Write the structure tokens for this entry.
Amino acid sequence: MAASNTASPVTGIPTGMPRSQPSLITFPTLLPKKVSPLIRFCRYVALITGIVYGFRRLRKLTAEEIIIQEHERKIKHIRRVYMSQEAWNTHKFQMNFLAQECGVTGVVTDAERHFKYPAKPKPTEDITSE
């Protein structure tokens, strides 16, 4: 039987070659095409524009975030005051209820009225103003 030298359409291996020999298939090397200076210029302009836009956007979002954080800090303080008042009211109610159950008289119902807080210190006079 005569071996034909035609290549297989799928693998590109000549059909007449024995299997023991490796087939040498060469692929054409593609050289990079030269990019047009206009396209290169447009790429760099787009890159620089994106960097500038990102910088400006970051500054704008940072300024907005500072305002939001300040507002959240105020809300957090108000909530903390409210929760402490609520905790005091709950504690006061429970203590009064316990005192009534035990039959104790003279129960303190409002601590702000019964405790004397120290007076605020007066500002000292400036001696250097003489």
Summary: The mean pLDDT is 77. Helices lie at 37-102, 111-114.
